[in-house]
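User: Before I run my own analysis I want an independent prediction to cross-check against. Here's the chain; please return only the structure tokens and, at the end, one sentence I can use as a sanity check.
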Amino acid sequence: MAEDQELEEIRRRKMLELQQKLAEEQRRIQMQQQIEMQKQAILRRILTPQARQRLTNIKIVRPEFASQLEIQLIQLAQAGKLRIPVTDEQLKIILKHLQPQKREFKIRRI
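Assistant: Structure tokens:
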């Protein structure tokens, strides 16, 4: 009988622990969603629709790069270093400056 109570107590503690982990994970996901919504709201204010579309296209191909770019654009806008709204042409120029220079290779015959 004592073993049954101990077993039940262990089960109860495990269940409580799992519920706490689940609640914590849900809070974390909700916080991430809230941050993403705030980021998108700021980007809607500082980018033209065409520039936002270009950023969305970049996010499909290079999600990490796009995320870093979004953060940089928001920081620059908050610091007053960007002319708002940023047009697609301005975004292209920013992207050209961020991309590493491509090296040209010449093939020579020996």
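Sanity check: The first helix runs from residue 2 to 46.
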